[in-house]
TrEMBL record:
PANTHER family: PERILIPIN, PERILIPIN-RELATED
Record's keyword terms, sorted: Lipid droplet
Compartment(s) where it occurs, according to its Swiss-Prot or TrEMBL record: Lipid droplet
Organism: Phaethon lepturus (White-tailed tropicbird)
Keyword field contains DNA damage: no
GO cellular component: cytosol; lipid droplet
Signal peptide: none
Name of the protein described by the UniProt record: Perilipin-3
Family: Belongs to the perilipin family.
InterPro entries xrefs: Perilipin (IPR004279)
Broad class of where this protein is predominantly found: other
Length: 113
C-alpha cells in the first residue's frame, strides 16, 4: 500500500482530491457538517475494525508478508513498463492536451492540403 501511495501519479491525484475536498468542505456549510459526521463515523468504524482484525492479522502475518513482497515486485515491474505512473496528474493532463492539440492541427493541415 505504501509503495502504491508513493507512486507520483497516485500521490498527486490524492493531493488534488484532498485539496478539492477541503475547499468544497470549507465553501459549503451544509456539506461541511455532512462531511464532518461522515469523517467521525469512518474514524470510529476504522478503530473498531482494527481492534477486531488485529488477532487475524497476527495469525496471517507471514502470509501477508509474502504477498506484500510479491506485490512489491509486481509494482516495480509495472512502474518500469508504465512510466506514466511516475508523472504527476497535472503533467499527464498537460501532455494529453498537447498531444490532442497537435493531432488536431495535423488533421486540419491534412484536410486543407
Amino acid at each position: 500500500v505504501d509503495q502504491v501511495a508513493n507512486l507520483t501519479l497516485v500521490s498527486s491525484a490524492c493531493d488534488m482530491l484532498s485539496t478539492a475536498y477541503a475547499s468544497t468542505k470549507e465553501s459549503h456549510p451544509y456539506i461541511r457538517s455532512v462531511c464532518g459526521a461522515a469523517e467521525k463515523g469512518m474514524k470510529s468504524m476504522t478503530e473498531a475494525t482494527a481492534i477486531c482484525v488485529q488477532p487475524v492479522l497476527t495469525t496471517l502475518e507471514p502470509h501477508v508478508a509474502a504477498a506484500s513482497e510479491y506485490a512489491s515486485k509486481g509494482l516495480d515491474k509495472l512502474g518500469e513498463k508504465l512510466p506514466v505512473l511516475q508523472k504527476p496528474v497535472d503533467q499527464i493532463i498537460s501532455d494529453t492536451k498537447e498531444l490532442v492539440s497537435s493531432r488536431v492541427a495535423d488533421a486540419k493541415d491534412a484536410v486543407s492540403s
